[in-house]
Amino acid sequence: MPKNPDRVHREVVSYVRRSARMNASQRKAWDTLADRWVVPVPPRQTSTSIAPDAAVDWAAVFGRTAPLVVEIGPGRGESLVALAERHPELDIVAFEVFEPAVASALSRAARHGVPNVRFVVANGAEGLERLFGPGHVHELWTFFPDPWHKARHHKRRLVGPDLADLAVSRLGASGRWRLATDWPDYADWMRATLDAHPGLENEHAGWAPRWAERPVTKYEARGLAAGRTIRDLTYRRRP
Ligand SMILES: C[S@@+](CC[C@H](N)C(=O)[O-])C[C@H]1O[C@@H](n2cnc3c(N)ncnc32)[C@H](O)[C@@H]1O
């Protein structure tokens, strides 16, 4: 018998589980807008996990069948909302674990009136695995993921071999994974890991040109101000 059978098994995740206190405007945004844009999903043990048998009918949620994009970690939704507005032909599902950030993103989504975005407050790696079938995802976006600098924390990095395996299984034929980071060692790690993956092909055989449609977010601006080079990467799933 385990010492404490009620103890929740905590996996290594790419984010810090922290109390999510919203400011007044975020609370108001959440209360008025979450019903419209946040898709509730049953959790497993922790609040950011997803039950293994959870399922979402995305065509019913969006009211149409359109190419599905998954963004993991949109933060305050700066890229997400701008890209959703530019691409009305896509339906974008954004997984973000930090509720106050989602609340800010909801305000932005409402200001821009984008109908083709939904949020799930949960770990995006689990969401990609559990809420999408093999080959159902048109594009995967991971922009400026938390860098986890220390070597002992590298296992927490979102982008790595496990997410690569999952991406390959969920992307459709010639589906695309777009990434960006301002941290040189993470950029090198992403490129080395994904270049080595047999299911992925680097679209540019090296660094990708900056995706011009992607707006400069707070994180990119911070990296630029600190003199760091922004690296974009794009991979295609091998057919
Ligand atoms: C450094 S911020 C970047 C935000 C945004 N992509 C941008 O470029 O401005 C990383 C975000 O990813 C979220 N995050 C980290 N791991 C996640 C995961 N596994 N699932 C969902 N969100 C995650 C964090 O809460 C944070 O908001």
Structure summarized in a few sentences:
By secondary structure, the protein is α/β, with parallel strands linked by helices. It contains eight helices and seven strands, in the order ααβαβαβαβαβαβαβ.
Explained architecture:
The chain has 239 residues and is an alpha/beta fold. The chain has a single domain (24-237), classed as Vaccinia Virus protein VP39 (Rossmann fold). 33% of the residues lie in helices and 18% in strands. The chain is built from eight helices and seven strands, in the order ααβαβαβαβαβαβαβ. It has helices at residues 24-37, 58-62, 78-86, 99-112, 124-131, 161-170, 184-195, 218-225, and strands at residues 68-72, 91-95, 117-120, 137-143, 171-181, 200-202, 231-237. It has a seven-stranded mixed sheet with strand order 3-2-1-4-5-7-6, with helices on both faces. The chain starts with 23 loop residues before the first helix and ends with a strand. The relative contact order is 0.15. Residues 1-8 have low confidence and may be disordered. Residues 14-15, 72-75, 78-79, 95-98, 101, 123-125, 143-146, 158, 217-219 line the site of S-adenosylmethionine. S-adenosylmethionine (SAM) binds at residues 14-15, 72-75, 78-79, 95-98, 101, 123-125, 143-146, 158, 217-219.
Outline the secondary-structure elements.
Blueprint (H helix, E strand, L loop, with lengths): L23 H14 L20 H5 L5 E5 L5 H9 L4 E5 L3 H14 L4 E4 L3 H8 L5 E7 L17 H10 E11 L2 H12 L4 E3 L15 H8 L5 E7 L2
Parallel strand pairs: 1-2, 1-4, 2-3, 4-5
Antiparallel strand pairs: 5-7, 6-7
Bound molecules: S-adenosylmethionine (SAM).
The site of S-adenosylmethionine has 24 residues, from helix 3, helix 5 and helix 8.
